[in-house]
Amino acid sequence: MATGTVMSMEILAAMQRGGFFDEVMAAGAALDRVKTYLRSFALPLPATRADPLQYPAMPLFPGLRHQPWHDTSAVAAAAQLEAASALIHDEYAALADADLVHYEPPAMDRLWAVYMLWHMGVELDTAPARCPRTCALLRALPRVCLDYPWGDALFSVHAADSHLRAHCSFDNLRLRLHLALQVPEGCAIRVGTQTRQWQPGRVLAFEDSFEHEVWNRGAERRAILIVDLWHPDLSALEIEVLSAGFCHSQVRRLFLRQRVAMLAGEHPQLLRRLDDGLAARDGEAAVARWWGG
Fold first, then answer.
1. Nearest CA among 147, 130, 129 for reference residue 227
2. Can you say how many angstroms the Cα of residue 224 is from the centroid of all Cα atoms in its chain?
């Protein structure tokens, strides 16, 4: 059985045990797409998809209009990031190499280092102190996806002569923004069939549920800010319910250590912070409501 199918079934089982599944199924028609989505977690992932280059690990949420690349003029958060690019760059530049952690997903050749602002839906302790203006800006972005465990906000640094090989993300629920901070010659990203280059101070917007790869063939490191937004076709109620479903500790703990295992070395303090953050979210009103609280 495929890894994604196993994970989907484990997530569904946790949601059923905790009462979340029954709460959603008892809700009105406004959550019909969420109901269909959750039911699909009990089914094998399809062998073929409408777009062969869109194959995230989890089932596809139904009814969303998908395209690999998005026009940033239609994304309000993109303009806000570009307007603040200088201050974001300054806070990134003030970080030392020792502040970065090495990230080692299977698809990466050579060094990928990150400074996490939010990880697994939890704001990291050091982030507001080290990058206060960036964190404040991110919190205020429209449709920002910070409380969902597969949404990210981080500084991403690729070493010279590095390559993140072709892959797809976990889900199709998000729109990913890249704000370019430091970009040498020879850097590019392919999403779907189209390749684009970063421009310092500008944002690229794409759906990482589509196959994508990144390379830096230059002689210097490449640095960007990554931040995720909810997919523009999701309603406010769907976002509330999806966030509540996935951020509950019964679900997040299923893949917490899987994500942390991609970091080089041991990170006990990070794990403790994430564990504490998971438990804290369970008591929030929106989460408790949908988990039968």
1. 147
2. 15
Percent of the chain with pLDDT strictly greater than 90:
71
Q: Under DSSP, is residue 4 helix (H, G, I), strand (E, B) or coil?
A: helix
Residues 75-97, buried b or exposed e (16+ Cβ, 10 A)? bebbeebbebbeebbebbeebee
Q: How far apart are CA 221 and CA 160, in angstroms?
A: 5
Identify whether the C-beta of residue 159 lies closer than 8 Å to the C-beta of residue 221. Answer: yes
3-state helix, strand, coil in the chain (%, to 5): 40, 25, 35
Number of residues written out for the chain: 293
Nearest of 132, 144, 36 to residue 84 by alpha carbon:
132
Angle at 58 between CA 55 and CA 64, to 5 degrees: 70
Rounded CA gap, 156 and 223, in Å?
A: 6
Q: How far apart are the first and last CA of the chain?
A: 34
**pTM of the entire structure?**
0.95
Whose tokens are 């999806």? That residue is 242
**Mean per-residue pLDDT over the chain, rounded:** 92
For residues 224 and 129, which has the higher predicted lDDT (pLDDT)? 224
**The amino acid at 144:** V
Total Cβ atoms within 10 A of residue 121: 21
The three-state secondary structure class of 160 is coil
If one counts every other C-beta atom within 10 angstroms of the C-beta of residue 19, the result is 13
In the chain, where does DSSP find H-type helix?
3-17, 20-25, 32-39, 76-83, 85-93, 127-130, 132-140, 236-247, 249-260, 268-282, 285-290
